[in-house]
Amino acid sequence: MEENEFFGEKTFQHYCAEFIKHSQKIGDGWEWRASKDCSDGYMCKTHFQVKNGTAVSHQGTSDHVQTFLPVEEALDPPLDDLEVNETTTAAEVIKYEYHVLYSCSYQVPVLYFRASFLDGRPLALKDIWEGVHECYKMRLLQGPWDTITQQEHPILGQPFFVLHPCKTSEFMTPVLKNSQKINRNVNYITSWLSMVGPAVGLNLPLSYATAASQDEGNVDGQDSSIERKSLEEH
């Protein structure tokens, strides 16, 4: 994808489909949700995490999600299912939701996110940042992280935090230029999400980058599963 290539919604859905395909292979939890009228949709992921950083699945078992534990703690043996259930209370478990939508106005992907305790109490943005790894905290004081605001989700109509897309093209252009220079195929969603995600507690396994470099398919020549599903539902 060239840096000046039009990033339309069809292209967005193709990259999401490729991203979700790899997510399903590694059990990373991303999925596509269509809007009620099936005219559009969004990519989303929900995961639960104990306040001290241990990620758990919906059933309370250890999940394959990158956590924010210090290296020394990360090397300790994980808790088994019984221990997690006994030591975790509703007040300690945090539900994180990440939604990736397409912005028709800016023609780029947009990251919406929110977090809350299981009793429904929402976390403020500063509370989410407290769980971010130390290596990213300095970046929170710099752009584009200073464009995070709270807005209504365009499809759900609920309050979410959002990384405003006004600077996305600005910081993605060098990435796309470099990939073109070295003749390397990249998934726009993978590259973009790996840059913006960590600042709000969302980390991508390195295997996404490998999968993107191996995907040499033509975006315009391939019909994604998302697009096929949309056509079938119409």
Explain what the structure shows.
Keywords: Autophagy, Cytoplasm, Protein transport, Transferase, Transport, Ubl conjugation pathway. Residues 214-234 are annotated as: Disordered. Pfam families: Autophagy_act_C. This is Ubiquitin-like-conjugating enzyme ATG10. Its main location: cytoplasm. It is a single chain. The chain is of the alpha+beta class. The chain has one domain (9-52, 90-212): Yope Regulator, Chain: A (2-Layer Sandwich). Helix content is 34%, strand content 20%. Strands 1, 2, 3, 4, 5, 6 and 7 form a seven-stranded antiparallel sheet that branches. A hairpin with a 4-residue loop joins strand 4 and strand 5 (108-117). Helix 1 crosses helix 8. The longest helix has 18 residues, at 9-26. The radius of gyration is 18 Å and the shape is globular.
Give the SSE map.
Layout: H1 9-26, E1 31-34, E2 41-50, E3 55-56, H2 71-74, H3 81-87, E4 93-103, E5 108-117, H4 125-130, H5 134-137, E6 148-152, E7 159-163, H6 168-181, H7 188-196, H8 207-214, H9 225-233
Antiparallel strand pairs: 1-2, 2-3, 2-4, 4-5, 5-7, 6-7
Keywords:
9 helices; globular; single chain; alpha+beta; Yope Regulator, Chain: A; 7 strands; about 230 residues
Distance between the termini: 29 Å
Structural class: alpha+beta
Could you tell me the CATH topology label: Yope Regulator, Chain: A
Which percent bin holds the helix content? 25-40%
Radius of gyration: 18 Å
Please state the average pLDDT score: 76
Number of helices: 9
Largest sheet: 7 strands, antiparallel
Q: Could you say what the CATH architecture is?
A: 2-Layer Sandwich
State the name of the first-level CATH class: Alpha Beta
Work out the count of structural domains: 1
Number of strands: 7
How much strand content do the residues show? 15-25%
Order of helices and strands: HEEEHHEEHHEEHHHH
The poorly predicted ranges are 57-84, 216-231
* Structural shape: globular
Family: Belongs to the ATG10 family.
Subcellular location: Cytoplasm
Keywords: Autophagy, Cytoplasm, Protein transport, Transferase, Transport, Ubl conjugation pathway
InterPro entries: Atg3/Atg10
